[in-house]
Design a protein that fits this description.
- The protein folds into 2 domains: 180 residues, Rossmann fold (3-Layer(aba) Sandwich), CATH 3.40.50; 138 residues, N-(1-d-carboxylethyl)-l-norvaline Dehydrogenase, domain 2 (Orthogonal Bundle).
- The protein has 15 helices and 8 strands.
- It has an 8-stranded mixed β-sheet, with helices on both faces.
- It is globular and about 55 Å long.
């Protein structure tokens, strides 16, 4: 593993130019580690050029100003990877493999930080498993960034919290320094698997919350739904990765709450549209943004076939999105399964 404290190795890059990638870059440029060499991979070359000229992301969080003299932009992922020691991945899970398959540089000695809140579709892998399979990356070089945290509130510099998880707690603590600033607080954890799976599950439950909202269910039902959701998370992560963890901590319960209830939650918005009668195809077109829960629920449903864990909310969302079951019918069935 590289020594991220050494003076000659403070080269950090963000891969991904969406709202979350933009928020993470803001955290990095606002952190106390001003001596880092910072790079940014933007897939669209035109976006990269416009960003250089204006100092703002032309598509996401457009109110955030960046001092571009401190950032190297490129639409060539290998160029960015080659000059960086620490890579922060902020690409929607559905596009991770398509983007990273173009990397032809050995990255197993780099630090990989996943800010992806989902699983690799079709392969049903969390990011730790994906990087181990395709890049032979050791878990000692792998870090997870998870919430509760919305990109929009980072842009507004509202007090926010992140959990930094790694099997190497010293590494987690050092990575926290790259994002810590006056409006962000961090906590470290050694639970890579639990935080990754929980981040994927909470998107599914935010979809369920949105569907119920779109159908006209009120706050009373929402409270019961989300209290059952955290128990569903606990049942799942305790089986797939049984270690000691406090499911009530912010990385699990906190992230669930902010995703299920916030007006910034794209999963909640997507679910609301489905509850109001939009088709999946129409909702995806109207949003023009990725709702991770749409892809995540299929992976989680398939993973659970081998465990047979009681997951009625996940099953209901899967049936609605992938088997064309009427939302009103599935949520009515769900009301008899949760208390």
């Amino acid at each position: 593993m590289i020594d991220i404290l050494s003076k000659e190795q403070k080269r950090i890059a963000v891969l991904g130019g969406g709202s979350w990638g933009t928020a993470l870059m803001k955290l990095i440029t606002d952190s106390s580690k001003k001596d880092s060499q910072i790079s940014w991979f933007l897939r669209n070359e035109q976006d990269a050029e416009e960003f250089k000229q204006t100092g703002r992301n032309p598509k996401y969080l457009q109110s955030v100003d960046f001092s571009n003299k401190n950032i190297f932009f490129s639409s060539n992922i290998n160029e960015i990877v080659e000059i960086s020691d620490i890579l922060i991945l902020a690409i929607p899970s559905a596009f991770v493999h398509e983007t990273l398959k173009n990397i032809n540089i050995d990255i197993k000695n780099k630090i990989i930080i996943s800010a992806v809140k989902g699983l690799i579709p079709n392969e049903n892998l969390i990011m730790a498993e994906y990087f181990g399979k395709y890049f032979k990356l050791s878990l000692r070089n792998f870090v997870v960034i998870t919430g509760p945290c919305h990109a929009e509130e980072i842009a507004l510099e509202r007090l926010s919290y992140l959990t930094i998880a790694s099997e190497n707690l010293n590494l987690a603590g050092e990575i926290a320094q790259y994002v810590d600033n006056h409006y962000l607080k961090t906590e470290i954890s050694d639970d890579i698997y639990g935080t990754e799976y929980s981040a994927a599950l909470k998107n599914v439950f935010a979809l369920a919350s949105g569907i119920a909202h779109g159908l006209g269910y009120g706050d009373n039902f929402q409270a019961v739904l989300i209290s059952n959701a955290i128990r569903e998370i606990k049942r799942f992560v305790d089986v797939v990765h049984p270690i000691g963890r406090d499911i009530k901590s912010s990385a699990y319960l906190g992230d669930l709450l902010v995703t299920a209830y916030s007006r910034f939650s794209r999963n909640h918005i997507f679910g609301t549209m489905i509850g109001k009668g939009y088709s999946v195809k129409t909702a995806k077109i109207e949003m023009n943004m990725v709702a991770e829960g749409y892809y995540g629920v299929k992976s989680l449903y398939e993973i659970n076939k081998q465990f047979n864990i009681f997951m009625p909310i996940t099953e209901a969302v899967f049936n609605i999105l992938y088997t064309n079951k009427p939302p009103a019918y599935e949520i009515k069935l769900l009301t008899d399964k949760i208390r």
